[in-house]
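Researcher: Please translate sequence to structure tokens.
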Amino acid sequence: MDLGMTPEAAAQLAQLREDELSQMKIRGPFLLAVAGDIGGTYPFARLQAPAVRRVLSIISRADLAFGNMEANVTDYDTATGQVRGLTGLREIAADVKAQGFDMVLRANNKSTTIGADKMLESNRIIAEAGLVFAGSGRNLQEARSAAYHMTPKGRVGMVGMYAYPDAAGGQVATYQVGFRGGLPGVNPVRLHEAVLVPQEDLDALRKIALANKELAKTLSPSDLPGLEVDTDPMSPVQLFTTTYALGERGRKRFTMLEDDERLNLRSIRDAKEAADFVITAIHSNESAWTIPFDFLQSEPTDFLIELAHAAIDNGADAFVASGVHAMRGIEIYRGRPIFYGLMSYDSRISNTPVVYDRYRDNGLNPFTTEYTESELSWKGWHPMESVVCEASFHDGTLSEVRIYPIDFGYGLPMSQKGAPRLSTGEVAQRILRRMQRISKPLGTHIAIQDDIGIISVG
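Model: Translation complete:
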């Protein structure tokens, strides 16, 4: 029994928890707007282009507007060291707020690209602009805790996470224990990855692993750690740094670190007991496939579906995933919306200085190439389409999800590309038909009316 409670007290607590977690507590209408990766490193809240204004009106009219703040921000005048990657001027934070956003995720693979100190500086500037963030902090207690935003209709809590596979980069926050302050970083959901192969491949890999073990015995009289090989033909095989398991060729399977899953779900429950509405957000770059095609990214990974369902079971009113630069489907689970991947909200092109790595990766000499920095930035960034979504709740019940197709400026001059524009006509229909197709396996029907996708919830 927890805390030495009697069985009667434990039963009362269990009932209280169930009552808290099962309901969305805001009465009357409540409108949630969700967007994908905010990578904006130049401001556009003041643009008067009608297609841009239509997108910004979706964000600004919501009772709560959420996006993944993938870009860092800094004061360029006082910045020391190398400023690179998705790092914009400090004014970007205020611009994102001016667009109408209220809460942002700050747990992603870009957060600590230029150091945890820049992540903390970005978090401070973002907070000063009036945005509430979650998912990163000075230690893991802070990064894993819920953040709160008070709306006129009630208090909103948010828990933010970063899915962190075996070989991924980024700095994970650590717990503060005693006099040790813990490391700053992001709140992880650490993953173990297994490549799936058919039985004949698994048998061959097991033979290689066993041969390696026998060779190691001739070099060392004692068993070396990490060389154990399970001879069960159905069991996974660890070969060097890769795990192989039985399954469909070309696919991958991810397993969450148990403590990360358990403690993040506890944070979600804590948020639900302290707030009237809870949004859970995760930055997840993983693909279910080993084949490197963007269109295959549309299928959410097994762990992401498992985590999304568990988050809602533990009190989340909406689950939003970002990070994969391809659209993924939408699921309605227990009357709550799950957005498995909204791709990008904007497209960063001619903005921050191009670092040497970009030239090197393109096989170019920075001093002799004819490419301009804007051309090189645009060459390395191709997605042109995405969506922004609205979820309408009334008296604690989800009634409708609207899907607004957006693009980043087809046919416009390079200086005008990047800001989100509400799509119409052929472009809108193409985006929405794709959302229909990738959401259908999740049990979701999307109707298309006047260039808008509509999910009606019974």
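Researcher: Any highlights?
Model: The chain is about 30% helix and 25% strand.
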